[in-house]
Amino acid sequence: MKPFFSVIIPLYNKENYLKNTLNCVFNQTFVDFEVIVVNDGSTDNSIKVVEEYKDERLIVIHQKNQGVSVARNTGMAHAKANYLCFLDADDLWKTNHLQVFYDTIAKFPEAKMYCGRYVTQISKNTFINNNFIDIDENYEGYVTDFFKSSLINRVALTSAVCIHKDIFTEIGGFDPALKSDQDLDYWIKIALKYKIAITASTTLTYNFINANKSLSKDNSKYHKLTDLNQYRSFEKDNKSLQAFLDIYRIEYGLHYYMLGLKEKSTEYLMYVDAENMNYKTRFLLKLPPFLLNGLLTVKRKLRNYGIDFTVYH
Q: Which positions fall inside the Glycosyltransferase 2-like domain (predicted)?
C-alpha cells in the first residue's frame, strides 16, 4: 500500500546524530510514511545505527559517495509516496511534524511545495526563531511572494520542506554538479513554477552548531556554485527575485574576494543592483582579504557562544 509520505534522509558519517534523528521520525504521531535512508558511502558507524531499527517502514539504499544531491535524488527516485519530505541526519522534527504537513496539504491542495516553520540552533543553548517578511507568525496558507518573504530567513529549508513528487517528475531533482547551496538552486526553480504554502507550526530544529553553511577555503576555488545568472530573464520583471539573488551574489562575491579570486568575485558582484548592496558590504569589500578572513574566524567563534549576525541585510 502506498504511504502518504516518503521521508528521505541522505546519510554520510552522522553516527553521533543519527539515532536522535531516526527516533524523531519513528515517534511521529502521523504514522503513514516510509523512511528512505540513502547511505552515501559512510565510513563511520552510521549504518550500524540504522541497522538497530527493525521498523518495516525503513528502507536503506547503499551507494558510493556521490554527494548529498545525488543521495536525495536517489531517495526521490525510489519514493512510493506522492509527498516527499527531506530530513538531514543531524536535524530534529517535533513529533507532530508530519501531521502538520498532512493538515496543511488537506487545506491548501493546490500547492506543490509546503514549507514548515523552524528554529535554528547556533550553539548548545541558543535557539533563534525565524520570521518571514509579510508572513504573520500564525499564518497558514499560500505564500504570495516567496522571494520577498525569504530575504531575511529562507521560507524553504531542506529539513522543513515537503514537495509533491510531480516536481521531481517534471523538473528533476537537485543539481549533482553543485557542491554548495544545492537546495537554494532547487527552491528557486520550484518557486518560479509552482504554488507554495507554509504551515503555522514550528516543527523543526535546524542544527547549525559548528556548521559552515557558507563557502569555505577548502572548496570555494574548485567547486561549482549556483549559476545565479540563469535567472536573469526572470528577475527583470521580479524585483523580489532580484533582491533575493543579490544576497547570494554578494555572499559568493565576498567569499571569492576573501580568497583573492577577484575575477570570480566580480562575476557575481557585477550584476548586483546598487540598491541591494548595503554600506556594510561596501565597507568590507574595501578591506584586505586577510583581514576579512580574520573577521570571519571571529564571527564563527562568536556563533559558538550564541552570538550570530549577518552583513547581507
A: 6-132
3-class secondary-structure state, position 165: helix
Pairing of strands 83-86, 92-93: unpaired
Q: Rounded to whole angstroms, what are the CA distances from 122 to 129, 212, 268? A: 11, 11, 28
Sign of CA dihedral 236, 241, 245, 250: positive
Is the per-residue pLDDT at 109 higher than 90? yes
Q: Which amino acid is at 47?
A: I
Supply the pLDDT for residue 215: 39
At 210-220, the pLDDT tens digits run: 454 443 444 44
Hey, where are the domains in the chain?
5-207, 228-304
pLDDT of residue 218: 46
Question: How far apart are the C-alpha atoms of 283 and 82, rounded to whole Å?
Answer: 48
**Which alpha helices (H) appear in the chain, and where do they start and end?**
15-26, 46-51, 68-78, 97-107, 146-149, 165-171, 182-191, 232-235, 239-258, 262-269, 279-284, 289-304
Looking at the domain 5-207, which fold is it? Spore Coat Polysaccharide Biosynthesis Protein SpsA; Chain A (3.90.550)
pTM > 0.90: yes
Number of helices (H) and strands (E) in the chain: give both, helices first. Answer: 12, 10
44: cell is: 563511520
pLDDT digits (tens, 9 = 90+) for 41-52: 999 999 999 999
Residues 204 and 56: their CA atoms lie apart, in Å, by 25
